[in-house]
Write a structure and sequence with these properties.
The chain has 246 residues and is mostly helical. The chain contains 10 helices and no strands. The chain has helices spanning 3-16, 18-25, 33-37, 46-65, 70-89, 93-116, 122-146, 151-176, 188-209, 215-244. The termini are far apart.
């Protein structure tokens, strides 16, 4: 196992060790407002989301106190997405996984800091949703290059990228027509978590099972593709039905 993979896994272990701490100190604590108002899925429930907000809370409050612009995190999300893509191109899957996680954290910080400082606006919302698509595209493009020559994996990456963009497009198009639809099992948070965890776990699992590097990640990307496509189809049907009932 490479040194970067060992370090990445140690950091993940340290992060997971905060879960039992949260289970104890978080008893009786009110659920985070953002977590409470957003729908959950079978992959990311209330407890996991609330734990994550608790973990990043001190960092978030530091950024709010130091008045860092939320736009910084929109741009950082793109930088981390591009860094993940480059890491995947060079076979540094664990490093790419951490870049995906840091990009996801940047995506969380921008909106929460803007709301905490009372400066949320339409420009920020547009940058947030649009730059997220750039970040996701860069990460999947890197994976496509990594899997060059493996048709099934390359096809999975292409479908995952296309379906991910469709998930966002259907929601945006529905909202433009006055229909809000956020449902589906494979929204952006779920895609990022699955992609990052598979990238981080690929080396030890592949080594233990005797698989080629990238096998676990490739199958996970296929799951993301199927879930995202299902989410896009669900949103298309739901929005179409709601519009037809008007």
């Amino acid at each position: 196992m490479r040194a970067t993979e060992r370090i990445a896994l140690l950091l993940v272990a340290a992060l997971l060790l905060t879960m039992p701490v949260f289970a104890v100190v978080g008893r009786g604590r009110s659920m985070d407002v953002d977590v409470a108002r957003r729908p959950t899925t079978m992959i990311l429930g209330f407890w996991v989301r609330d734990w994550l907000m608790w973990v990043i809370g001190p960092v978030e409050r530091f950024f709010v106190r130091t008045r860092v612009s939320p736009d910084v995190f929109n741009y950082l999300g793109v930088v981390f997405g591009a860094a993940a893509g480059f890491a995947f191109v060079f076979g540094e899957l664990a490093l790419g996984g951490w870049m995906v996680l840091l990009g996801g954290a940047s995506d969380i910080f921008d909106g929460r800091i803007a709301r905490a400082r009372g400066i949320a606006n339409e420009r920020g919302a547009f940058l947030d949703s649009t730059l997220d698509r750039f970040a996701e595209t860069f990460a999947f493009a890197g994976l496509a290059i990594f899997y060059d020559g493996q048709r099934w994996a390359t096809a999975a990456v292409a479908l995952a990228l296309g379906a991910s963009l469709l998930v966002s497009y259907t929601r945006a198009r529905g909202e433009a027509l006055g229909v809000l639809c956020r449902g589906g099992v494979m929204q952006r948070a779920e895609r990022l978590v699955l992609l990052a965890l598979a990238a981080l776990a690929d080396a030890p699992v592949a080594g233990w099972m005797g698989w080629a590097p990238g096998t676990l990640l490739g199958w996970t990307v296929a799951v993301i593709a199927a879930g995202a496509m299902g989410t896009a189809i669900y949103r298309t049907a739901s929005i179409s039905n709601q519009l037809g009932e008007r």
